[in-house]
Amino acid sequence: MTYLNSHPDAKGFFGPYGGADLPPVLVDQFAAIEKAYLTLSRSADFINELRYIRKHFQGRPTPVSFLGNLSADCGGAQIYAKREDLNHTGAHKLNHCMAEALLAKHMGKTKVMAETGAGQHGVALATAAAYFGLECEIHMGEIDIAKEAPNVTRMKLLGAEVVPVGFGGRSLKEAVDSCFQSYVAQAEHALFAIGSVVGPHPFPMMVRDFQHVVGIEAREQFLDMTGRLPDMVAACVGGGSNAMGMFAGFIDDDGVALYGVEPLGTSSDMGDHAATITFGEDGDIHGFKTMVLKDKDGNPAPVHTVASGLDYPGVGPEHAYLHRTGRANYVAADDREALDAFYRLSRREGIIPALESAHAVAFALREAPKNPGKTILLNLSGRGDKDIDYVTETYGFDAGD
Ligand SMILES: *Cc1c(COP(=O)(O)O)cnc(C)c1O
């Protein structure tokens, strides 16, 4: 049996991690989502419709690019990038949003809903909702709405209703609570489209399966280009969806080392980073078991990273499991390394990466000089247009300015 067929188990567990700790009102809804997914993911209609969308709407397959200039600069391993920045809307998130919206449509739902922090998941879901003619409700903290105006404009243009959340810290955590409350009241006709490989079962499994296309394509493309498999595969880890999609393509290839790159922020002190596997411990968050960064009282710790898409004090349960089994390695890159990688990829390769993806680039730049004769394939999860104003206003136009 392949790894993917046997993980998670029937209850949604990856070893001790995962599962679904749900309020009673949602138990039936989540069971219905799981049942629909297990049926549809084996139906030719669903698979063909998703294939058509991947090709004719999203623009897949995205290419793998050889980063020849950076490889030469490093003088060691050859570095390649899977170009999810070229997926429609500029990141990997649309891979699972299109599939979640298609699932909602097949289940007879009329609405998709979610919370969003920086607005990336909100924009991807609003795009999917527009495509399928579904209503879309996005909950967003008032602080984030003020900070991320272009994404709020995008969501509204795409026809989504953006619900401002004005209580507590008015940010992502409150947006989750607000969306959850609203969802409980409309679960009959709405699907809560979770934005990463997190949340209660079946979401970590479904979102991984929907992102698997990244790893399937990348494996085939890399073989085509080089005649062999990569020695190392790397991806940044926030909740872990772009990494899990990439890892899934190589998980049964024992010779391929897998690396998840967590954000080390400004230091290893609590509150200065979001490196959950590097510094966290076992715990519960948002209805599932995983590794969690905790404060002194055992509550989710405050987190920081220059890449807001990696800002989460938990991690997908499958990553906690792959860390425990040793199949994947988890390392960290700090804000400075990510910024340096952001500038170097822009200047040397003509690709401006998302700050999230820059963490994976930073890992490759760090490892390449130590690994002559080897190959590194990184997942460039998204493009950096959203980050250019912040980066240049804060740090100027050159690394080291
Ligand atoms: C949201 C986001 C991430 C982090 O999400 P994962 O679920 O960890 O993949 C990474 N890169 C980009 C470009 C994103 O928008």
Helices and strands in order:
Layout lengths: L2 H4 L6 E2 L2 E2 L5 H17 L3 H13 L7 E3 L1 H7 L3 E6 L9 H14 L4 E5 L4 H13 L2 E7 H6 L1 H9 L3 E5 L6 H15 L3 E3 L10 H24 L5 E5 L4 H8 L8 E9 L10 H4 L1 E5 L2 E5 L24 H9 L2 E7 H15 L5 H13 L7 E6 L7 H8 L6
Parallel strand pairs: 4-14, 5-6, 5-8, 6-7, 9-10, 9-14, 10-13
Antiparallel strand pairs: 1-2, 3-4, 11-12
Pyridoxal-5'-phosphate (PLP) binds next to α11 and α15.
GO molecular function: tryptophan synthase activity
InterPro entries: Trp_synth_b_CS, Trp_synth_beta, Trp_synth_beta/beta-like, TrpB-like_PALP, TrpB-like_PALP_sf
Cofactor: pyridoxal 5'-phosphate
Describe the structure.
The chain has helices at 3-6, 24-40, 44-56, 68-74, 93-106, 120-132, 142-147, 149-157, 172-186, 203-226, 241-248, 276-279, 317-325, 335-349, 355-367, 388-395; strands spanning 13-14, 17-18, 64-66, 78-83, 111-115, 135-141, 161-165, 190-192, 232-236, 257-265, 281-285, 288-292, 328-334, 375-380. It has 401 residues and is an alpha/beta fold. It folds into 2 domains: 23-55 and 93-203, 3-Layer(aba) Sandwich (Rossmann fold), CATH 3.40.50.1100; 59-90 and 212-395, 3-Layer(aba) Sandwich (Rossmann fold). Strands 3-4-14-9-10-13 form a 6-stranded mixed beta sheet, sandwiched between helices. The chain is globular and about 55 Å long. The protein starts with a helix and ends in a 6-residue tail after the last helix. Bound molecules: pyridoxal-5'-phosphate. The site of pyridoxal-5'-phosphate has 18 residues, from helix 11 and helix 15.
